[in-house]
């Protein structure tokens, strides 16, 4: 699974980090940090996190 | 199911449409909206759109054109006949349905007293923001905002950033008061630093009119605030007047729905109607509850999640439908502060500052009720919130587990 975040769109709103905290987190400056290689079984949660993004900054490619 | 009608083309309605198609619904899908606009996203309106950092085309809801719906724009739904399964429209047309998604949203609450014919606005939709920008670009340099909830505070921030002199009046004493005293204090201080005059604890007596335009706002304490423009930002009312004859339960004007988002009928046990699901700001859902009953949620994340599930459950039918399982969350930004919340902070009986320091404008406030976590609010401490969301989720699973044991 390949996760791409569009930095131009991401506003650090952190909704993804609430849905899939195993994969998404905010740093001290509320900028998004994405785990490098999320486990395959998290695919459902990652998809939900992408849908929860208010600015549609997250795209996911299944591998 | 062959015909589905979605009433409302805001986020909840659009997500419902997308979700119907994603679930393989191939029948006729009609979306009805009283607005003429293409679907758009509301959170940026009072922030980026007023500030001018986003344009109207930036806030169009992506995906709305893609799900093969018949769009009826600029025509309000005026009635729901559940017996004959018809949505009645303002132009007299009737739309038959097998299933209907009610996502009508809300309107800005209007001032209850007399207002001058010109210069007093409410802000809820894109049209309102256009009018606001026209007034400001046309030279309104002195604006009074009545109400320091989310809309009032965001507008105060955006307008002061444009060089407008803003006075923010909050009769109930604190800005964003549902978030707790510590957060209100941080917001009030930041507003003051940005040059906004904050008047707390004083109500509005009325408006002065000069040749049909507002000239000033009179406060209860006798002070008079000159104003070229007034924004009344005192909350929203669900757009459900048209459902009055529908036989649905409408407590305080909201559409009461069960844990699976099926609309409850009025009277008796409030049996849910399997052909009617509810989503968004107008919903009053049994699955979103505080200790003493359901709570209305007027947030983006709720509209998105309910729209998606309502559509899925409508197709699945009540027996296979899933309960709405969502930790509430929202965000706002004003005066350089990033404010976010999880859970239902307004429903607590005690708040605890668990990180940061209100004095430096960064704070995490947890809200408890009878010792149990019910919500958390962050100002510039957003990285801490997901742990609170997880705790809220765990508490809920415990709660649900207990209920299952009991039945």
From TrEMBL, chain A:
Give one GO molecular function term: electron transfer activity
> Gene3D superfamilies given for it?
3.30.70.20
Keywords in UniProt for this one? 3Fe-4S, Electron transport, Iron, Iron-sulfur, Metal-binding, Transport
Iron-sulfur found in the keyword field = yes
The domain of life for this entry's organism is Bacteria
Give a single Pfam family match: Fer4_13
> Does the UniProt entry include the keyword Magnesium?
no
**Requisite cofactors:** [3Fe-4S] cluster
Q: What exactly does this protein do?
A: Ferredoxins are iron-sulfur proteins that transfer electrons in a wide variety of metabolic reactions.
Protein's recorded name:
Ferredoxin
Q: What organism does this protein naturally occur in?
A: Streptomyces inhibens
Automatic annotation (TrEMBL), chain B:
Record-annotated FAD/NAD(P)-binding domain positions: 3-307
Pinpoint the Reductase C-terminal domain residues: 330-395
| Alphabetized GO MF terms | oxidoreductase activity, acting on NAD(P)H
Give GO cellular component annotations, separated by semicolons: cytoplasm
Q: Which superkingdom heads the taxonomic lineage of this protein's source?
A: Bacteria
InterPro entries named in the record: FAD-oxidoreductase/Apoptosis (IPR050446), FAD/NAD-bd_sf (IPR036188), FAD/NAD-binding_dom (IPR023753), FAD/NAD-linked_Rdtase_dimer_sf (IPR016156), Reductase_C (IPR028202)
Q: Which cofactor does it need?
A: FAD
Is the keyword Flavoprotein in the record? yes
Pfam families per record: Pyr_redox_2 (PF07992), Reductase_C (PF14759)
Write the record's keywords in alphabetical order, separated by commas. FAD, Flavoprotein, Oxidoreductase
Q: Which PANTHER family did the record assign?
A: APOPTOSIS-INDUCING FACTOR 1, RIESKE DOMAIN-CONTAINING PROTEIN-RELATED
What protein name is recorded for this chain?
NAD(P)/FAD-dependent oxidoreductase
Q: Which organism is it from?
A: Streptomyces inhibens
């Amino acid at each position: 699974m390949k996760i791409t975040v569009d930095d131009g769109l991401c506003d650090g709103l952190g909704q993804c980090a609430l849905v899939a905290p195993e994969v998404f987190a905010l740093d001290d400056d509320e900028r998004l940090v994405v785990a490098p290689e999320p486990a395959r079984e998290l695919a459902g949660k990652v998809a939900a996190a992408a849908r929860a993004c208010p600015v549609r900054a997250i795209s996911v490619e299944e591998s | 199911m062959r015909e589905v009608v979605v009433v409302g083309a805001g986020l909840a309605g659009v997500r419902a449409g997308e979700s119907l198609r994603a679930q393989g619904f191939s029948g006729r899908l009609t979306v009805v909206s009283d607005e003429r606009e293409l679907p758009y996203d509301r959170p940026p309106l009072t922030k980026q759109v007023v500030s001018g950092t986003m344009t109207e085309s930036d806030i169009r809801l992506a995906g709305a054109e893609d799900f093969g719906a018949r769009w009826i724009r600029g025509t309000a739904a005026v009635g729901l006949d559940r017996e004959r399964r018809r949505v009645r429209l303002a132009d007299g047309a009737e739309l038959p349905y097998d299933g209907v998604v009610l996502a009508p949203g809300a309107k800005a609450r209007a001032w209850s007293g007399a207002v001058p014919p010109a210069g007093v606005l409410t802000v809820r939709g894109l049209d309102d923001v256009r009018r606001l920008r026209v007034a400001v670009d046309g030279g309104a340099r002195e604006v009074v905002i009545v109400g320091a909830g989310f809309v009032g505070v965001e507008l105060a921030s955006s307008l002061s950033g444009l060089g407008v002199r803003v006075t923010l009046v909050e009769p109930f004493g604190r800005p964003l008061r549902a978030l707790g005293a510590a957060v209100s204090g941080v917001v009030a201080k930041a507003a003051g630093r940005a040059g906004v005059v904050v008047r707390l604890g004083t109500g509005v007596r009325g408006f002065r009119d000069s040749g049909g335009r507002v000239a000033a706002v009179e406060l209860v304490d006798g002070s008079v605030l000159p104003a070229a423009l007034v924004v009344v930002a005192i909350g929203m009312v669900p757009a459900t007047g048209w459902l009055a004859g529908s036989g649905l339960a409408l407590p305080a004007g909201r559409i009461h729905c069960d844990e699976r988002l099926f609309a409850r009928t009025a009277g008796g046990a409030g049996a849910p109607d399997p052909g009617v699901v509810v989503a968004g700001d107008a919903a009053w859902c049994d699955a979103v509850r505080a200790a003493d009953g359901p709570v209305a949620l007027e947030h983006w994340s709720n509209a998105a999640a309910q729209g998606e599930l309502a559509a899925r459950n409508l197709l699945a039918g009540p027996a296979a439908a899933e309960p709405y399982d969502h930790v509430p969350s929202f965000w706002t930004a004003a005066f350089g502060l990033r404010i976010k919340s999880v859970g239902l902070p307004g429903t607590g009986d005690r708040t605890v500052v668990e990180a940061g320091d209100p004095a430096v404008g960064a704070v995490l406030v947890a809200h408890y009720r009878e010792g149990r976590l019910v919500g958390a609010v962050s100002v510039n401490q957003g990285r801490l919130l997901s742990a609170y969301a997880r705790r809220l989720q765990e508490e809920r699973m415990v709660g649900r587990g207990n209920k299952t044991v009991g039945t």
